[in-house]
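Notes on consecutive records. When two proteins share a document, each keeps its own sequence and its own token line. Never mix them. Below: protein one.
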Amino acid sequence: MNNRERNRSVQTMADAERAHRRATGGGGGLGDVAIYVLMRTCNIMMSERASRLLEPHGLTAMGYITMMSLYSRPENLANPSELSDVTGETRGNMTRICDDLVDKGWMRRVPNADDRRRVDLSLTDAGMALLNTVAPAMRAQADAFYERTFSKAEKASLQLLLTKFSAALAAEL
């Protein structure tokens, strides 16, 4: 985390603390809401970091995630609704993301073999080539970031805690 990001994180916590005290009549502070604020701040900064790394390739973080979601499918086919479900993006936003990826030549629309009303998306050869270049670089960047930020034990604990947290959230949905 650079100084700008650290300052923004501290400012976000201070703003959240001020708002919470105001909303609750001044008592108690943030309590465990601070965990949410920290996780949300980290999520935003991680997305911005990924966007900076992907920008030279003409990709956004969500474009990359969308392409990787499609690449993970055995048939390399999915419709926008399925991609929306996988990425958590709204269907309208997923349509915009896919339109951009199609316009750039990394994805194409193909008729669905079983339902002629449905259109699927598939990666083009250019899209697969891009991912084969970008994915290893993203992995190396992530590995280097976590190596300089956490010890092996801390990284293992973080992964365990986030897995537990994710399972608890999923059980509440």
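Protein two starts on the next line and is unrelated to protein one.
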Amino acid sequence: MGMTVGKKGYKSDINITPYIDILLVLLIIFMVAAPLKKHDHPVRVPQPAPATQPKDVKPDSIIVDIDLDHTVRLNSQPITLDKLETTLTEVFKRRAVKNMFIRGDAALPYGDVFVLMDIARRSGVADIALLDKKEKSAPTGSAKGSH
């Protein structure tokens, strides 16, 4: 747009107006097209834990209990650590849901619980949940009708 007066030759300024026009058209196209794109990756947000834990345990749940004296029980049946791995391997071969619970006293050393977790992983368990063994109160039917 500017004219040079008094100088001979060609003006060597670059005209960027067409480039800006193209840039604005592309910007409008991308702004319109961006909300139409579908995202292929679903986002899983962790859910808050329930306020109270259910007291009823499913009958098909596998629960391994460990006490302070290192006695191990599989669904309330005493078992040794040597037999635990083979038993769990046989159980989880036939199951589609490979979940297991380990219930122990809070005073147990972490190493004892990790031994059970290692055995469970080698047996094919996919998910392991840790439960705290609460102090058992008086049995439900005791001494209520004895007055």
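For the record: The helical segments are 17-33, 81-93, 110-123.
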